[in-house]
């Protein structure tokens, strides 16, 4: 699991320190906003969403799902992106609960709710939206210092009326909520799934809201759940013949593995143990134990645990990937590269993240033939995960080790470009051009970076 951007609390800083590939976007440091990239979680949530988006007629709309590193229960739509908190994934006991939330959010998109704002946000960068919603201050500070990553286009809109944008984004009309609920039920029905999970989520949020003095969940603010709405929802949900339908066991297992990972990464051993106390020898419990051992600083202790898991489940790409990460941390890059290679060959979703991990491990071996191979793997991984700016650091390093200074500078330029540091990007692109053959593909790419116009406010 790779954190992007910043963590606020001390425990999170510790987490950040031990996460490989983690990096900080300074503009967001004070607000503690962060995104998470993880091949396993992304693949699973995408799988939850795919049939729903299809049923909603949105499968060709380029809807992206963004994972937010936050322990509270939240999910919201902004532009073409559905943001979902790791806290929501952790709290949801079944895939169906998350699928229900995604169905409701898809209902807002398909219903064209706040369409005008959505069109404007479609061009905005992820972090700009996130900053606006979770803390406008962070974004303003970042924009002034020029260090705000990803959020140039759309910034004008968000800065001009950030308070308005935030309020609008976080609150739908009551009629829009009812419409989204009804649409969600339709999508669930079309895909043969139960609306029970969605009902459970809204009931839980409704209950929490009625308790005075309880911390208000962000999801409640954006999706008010008065009793009558829940009652309507329940009536509709129960009419379906799929109401009692359970998620397939294989999907439930993947869901539990995901929760194990999130619990271990964000809350450590104790929380992970608590989550699986009824079944401490189950695969998710063992997975959580291995990861928590790793994240608590004992990579060596984690190796035997992940080895046992991989041995019993040789075809799960994410177990190999995790093994690779642990081996990297334990200073065994040759074996790590083998583990990532296995993960890559098993990963049907062709996650760029796994391939970047493979490239990073190859690079770390320091063997010239591996470093050459690393360049290809990193480039291929980055071509599918363009905005994962940390990957360009490894690519730059690999090029530098091979003596390709121009390519190294171009990779550095790309890294700056995708974290929104356009001045630095131009600087390195210009330096790259001096060393690259004029008119070559790399030279032309450098020219694109130099010519890139930062969208005006
Ligand atoms: Zn809603």
Summarize it.
The protein has helices at residues 10-18, 39-55, 86-91, 95-110, 115-122, 126-134, 136-145, 155-160, 162-170, 174-190, 196-210, 218-222, 227-239, 249-275, 283-295, 299-312, 317-329, 333-346, 352-365, 368-384, 390-401, 405-418, 422-435, 441-451, and strands at residues 2-5, 34-37, 64-68, 75-78, 81-85.
What labels would you give this structure?
457 residues; mainly alpha; Serine Threonine Protein Phosphatase 5, Tetratricopeptide repeat; 5-stranded mixed sheet; 24 helices; 5 strands; binds zinc ion
What can you tell me about this protein's structure?
The protein is mainly alpha-helical. It has helices at residues 10-18, 39-55, 86-91, 95-110, 115-122, 126-134, 136-145, 155-160, 162-170, 174-190, 196-210, 218-222, 227-239, 249-275, 283-295, 299-312, 317-329, 333-346, 352-365, 368-384, 390-401, 405-418, 422-435, 441-451; strands spanning 2-5, 34-37, 64-68, 75-78, 81-85. The protein has a five-stranded mixed β-sheet. The chain starts with a strand and ends in a 6-residue tail after the last helix. The model is unreliable at 5-31, 135-163 and 210-216 (pLDDT under 50). Residues 104, 108, 172, 177, 180, 223 line the site of zinc ion (ZN).
């Amino acid at each position: 699991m790779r954190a992007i951007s910043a963590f606020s609390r001390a425990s999170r800083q510790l987490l950040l320190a031990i996460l490989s590939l983690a990096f900080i976007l300074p503009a967001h440091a004070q607000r503690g906003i962060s995104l998470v990239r993880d091949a396993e979680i992304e693949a699973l949530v995408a799988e939850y969403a795919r049939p729903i988006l299809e049923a909603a007629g949105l499968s060709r709309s380029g809807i992206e799902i963004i994972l937010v590193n936050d322990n509270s229960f939240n999910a919201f739509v902004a532009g073409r992106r559905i943001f979902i908190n790791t806290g929501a994934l952790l709290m949801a006991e079944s895939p169906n609960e998350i699928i229900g939330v995604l169905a409701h959010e898809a209902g807002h998109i398909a219903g064209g709710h706040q369409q005008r704002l959505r069109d404007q946000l479609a061009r905005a960068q992820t972090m700009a939206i996130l900053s606006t919603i979770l803390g406008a201050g962070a974004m303003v500070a970042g924009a002034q210092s020029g260090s705000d990553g990803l959020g140039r286009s759309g910034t004008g809109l968000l800065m001009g009326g950030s308070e308005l944008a935030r309020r609008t984004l976080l609150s739908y009309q009551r009629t829009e909520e009812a419409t989204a609920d009804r649409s969600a039920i339709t999508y669930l029905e079309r895909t043969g799934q139960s609306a029970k999970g969605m009902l459970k989520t809204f009931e839980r949020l409704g209950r929490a809201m009625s308790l005075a003095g309880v911390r208000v969940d962000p999801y409640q603010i954006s999706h008010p759940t008065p009793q009558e709405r829940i009652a309507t929802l329940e009536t509709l949900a129960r009419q379906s013949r799929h109401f009692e339908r359970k998620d397939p066991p294989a999907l439930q297992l993947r869901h539990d593995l995901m929760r194990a990972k999130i619990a271990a990464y964000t809350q450590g051993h104790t929380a992970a143990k608590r989550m699986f106390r009824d079944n401490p020898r189950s695969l998710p419990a063992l997975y959580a134990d291995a990861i928590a051992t790793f994240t608590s600083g004992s990579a060596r202790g984690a190796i035997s645990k992940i080895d046992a898991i991989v041995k019993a489940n040789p075809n799960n790409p994410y177990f190999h990937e995790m093994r690779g990460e642990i081996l990297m941390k334990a200073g065994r890059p040759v074996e790590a590269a083998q583990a990532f290679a296995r993960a890559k060959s098993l990963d049907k979703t062709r996650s760029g993240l796994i391939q970047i991990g493979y490239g990073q491990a190859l690079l770390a071996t320091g063997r010239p033939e591996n470093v050459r191979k690393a360049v290809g793997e990193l480039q291929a991984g980055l071509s599918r995960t363009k905005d994962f700016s940390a990957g360009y650091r490894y690519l730059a390093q690999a090029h530098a080790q091979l003596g390709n200074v121009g390519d190294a500078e171009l990779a550095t330029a790309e890294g700056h470009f995708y974290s929104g540091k356009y001045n630095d990007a131009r600087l390195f692109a210009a330096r790259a051009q001096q060393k690259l053959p004029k008119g070559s593909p790399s030279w032309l790419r450098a020219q694109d970076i130099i010519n890139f116009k930062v969208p005006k406010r």
